[in-house]
Amino acid sequence: MSSEGIIEYSEQRLPQCTGTTYNTHRDALDSWVGYLSESGADVDDVAIEDIQGWLVHLRDNMGYAHSHIALKLQVLETLYNWIDEEELGANPTKKLNRKDHYSWLEPSPDKVKNSAEGISYISKEDYRLLVDAASCKREEVVIRSLADLGLRAQELNWLQVESFDLEEQKVTIRTAKRDEMTFLPGFYDIKYKLLIEEWLASERKAWLSGMDMSSSYLVPGHKIPAIRTGEITDIVRDAADRAGIQSYYEDAAGRSRADVTPHSLRHSFGV
């Protein structure tokens, strides 16, 4: 049932988020559930028309900008994708498309650029292409860890093998907000669990053997115990280039910047 899925998402997925990411997801979820309650819709049998009504409500009654509405829709798709993967209910967003159901909304929610948070959000289709473009299992672990766990590059650099409880599908994430170090619980699905099990059982051992070293970190670096944050950025950027989903822009200083980055993956986790 979708109602059970929403509760599970709130208890398992949302605790992985911090700061503005948490606020964005929490606000969108509260808005959606509130709308369903006020409109009398069945939370366990959501129709495309319910989503259309919510989007119009956000535009006409709440006065949100289109980019803000598109961001909330992105969160809704993340929610129901997770519910679908966990087999907790149906995914009413699967058949939702801009042309037929919300052609008035700009920009397209497939990739919300220059949002209020200054982040590019990656669509689920682009995410699949990005994962497929990984040149080895190590790169796939990097890409999927950023997205599936919602990690910052620095948090992936810190992540250790002993942080994982594979049987319970949990991970303890060391994170830094402001100047204070904290440890947060993280959860992941069976597909990510199988990836990590495969990585630990085979290719990680081969990597360490080739480097003639040992490491306690999930992703070892090149002749150093942990992967550098700069290499994490390079892996994501280069895979996006190969997948044909990368785009670039000039910042205020005239420097070329990539849209698909570890930061955008983190904010698009669970796509």
Topology of this structure?
Blueprint: H1 2-12, H2 19-39, H3 48-60, H4 66-85, H5 98-101, H6 124-132, H7 137-148, H8 153-158, E1 164-165, E2 170-177, E3 180-187, H9 190-211, H10 229-243, E4 248-250, E5 256-258, H11 262-267
Antiparallel strand pairs: 1-2, 2-3, 4-5
The overall pLDDT, averaged over residues, is 81
Shape: globular
Major sheet details: 3 strands, antiparallel
Order of helices and strands: HHHHHHHHEEEHHEEH
Please identify the structural class as seen in this structure.
Answer: mainly alpha
The total domain count is: 2
Task: Classify the fold: give the CATH topology of the largest domain.
Answer: hpI Integrase, Chain A
Fraction of residues in helices?
40-55%
The CATH class label of the largest domain is: Mainly Alpha
What is the percentage of strand-forming residues?
5-15%
Written account of the structure:
The protein is mainly α. The chain has 2 domains: 2-101, DNA polymerase, domain 1 (Orthogonal Bundle); 124-267, Orthogonal Bundle (hpI Integrase, Chain A), CATH 1.10.443.10. It is built from 11 helices and 5 strands; from the N terminus they run H-H-H-H-H-H-H-H-E-E-E-H-H-E-E-H. It has helices spanning 2-12, 19-39, 48-60, 66-85, 98-101, 124-132, 137-148, 153-158, 190-211, 229-243, 262-267, and strands spanning 164-165, 170-177, 180-187, 248-250, 256-258. The strands form 2 sheets. Strands 1-2-3 form a 3-stranded antiparallel sheet. It has a two-stranded antiparallel ribbon with strand order 4-5. The longest helix has 22 residues, at 190-211. The chain is globular.
